[in-house]
Amino acid sequence: MVWTPADLLWSLTNRAPFTVFESICSNLFLVLIASLGITPVWNLIKGNQFPTKGKHVYVTGGSVGLGRAVAIELAKQGAHVTIVARKEGPLKETVELMKQAAASVKKDKDGGEAEQKFHFISADITEREQAIRALDEASSRFDGQVPDIIITCAGTAIPNFFVEATTEEFELQMKLNYFGTLYTVHEAVKRMVAEQSSDTSSSSSSGSGSGSGSGSGSERSRPQPRRHKEIVMTSSSMALIGFVGYSSYAPTKFALRGLAECLRNELLMYQDKKTGKGIGLHIYYAGTMFSPGYENENRTKPLVTREIEGSSGLTSEEAAKGLFRGLKKGYFAVVTDFDTNFLRVAARGVTPMGNFGWDYLLGLIAPFAATQFLWESNYKVKNYGKKLLKKEL
């Protein structure tokens, strides 16, 4: 075949670049498909990253809604559970439900019955002193050891228009949603760090006994947790997005998100390089949940807010099961519905990925989905405003 200058020009300007682009796309596609397949296999190899059987788990907000569902799920998994809330009545009900759902009773060496331990503590965790007292009481039942796992579920939402909400409502939600979590987590982390292995401190001392060791004393004696601990903070999809009606609620959940992202990084200081044990930190971005709290928030929720968020959601039991699925895979950020997963990917920032393949795929689509949601929500708010002006509402 005789190549003419025109043929050569066509090949250089069309075929070659297209072939390179095609090759790049096909390789990326293969990587994506491979990661989608490898991730589940890798999860199987790693096994359960969040074991709860035989662990002491401390759950705030454990009397109703998500907190109750989480406590019952933990009982099924064989954990010892301490729940905390203000009202004794609902707390006692939850304890009975946990007993009914508990894993089968095992026989101990003496032939007796070694049952799981379920306790409740009545306390207002928005008060720092009471939050500390509750943690003290829970620890005292387990030889003074801080609980192995802390799960904070206490929270409330009072949706309203910004101009109609009272400053007391802003303060109440910040006090429960943020400070109610902060007081518990802050005290728990301090105790987790303080519960050090005597072997670690003694080995640090012996290593510097000859006087020839290198490095600062603070680095040699940096404490390591004796047992692996976990903290799970319940936030909301409203920590990833904001729209009309949630001006008093979303900031409290954004605050939790900031706290979780900072703590996740800082707690790496206490991770043992050999065993990987330390203090794990997770955040749960809960979506719409059909619970007693949801019924209460609908009393003040503006109509336009309902139109934007839609009617889909999960029961508390479904949310609890989904939460543990994510935790067992070792995810830092856990979501339990598709819409919130889009928001998580779109607003991920500098945080660990979950499923690499899905995160990559959703990352390609998320900007378009977010733009569509932006347009739709803006349209609904403007349309609502027009109706208000015409006094049609």
TrEMBL record:
Residues 197-207 have a biased composition (Low complexity). It is found in: Endoplasmic reticulum. Keywords: Endoplasmic reticulum, Lipid metabolism, Membrane, NADP, Oxidoreductase, Sphingolipid metabolism, Transmembrane, Transmembrane helix. Its EC number is 1.1.1.102. InterPro entries: KDSR-like, NAD(P)-bd_dom_sf, SDR_fam. GO terms for biological process: 3-keto-sphinganine metabolic process; sphingolipid biosynthetic process. The keyword Transmembrane helix applies. Pfam families: adh_short (PF00106). Residues 194-227 are annotated as: Disordered. Catalyzes the reduction of 3'-oxosphinganine (3-ketodihydrosphingosine/KDS) to sphinganine (dihydrosphingosine/DHS), the second step of de novo sphingolipid biosynthesis. This is 3-dehydrosphinganine reductase. It comes from Modicella reniformis.
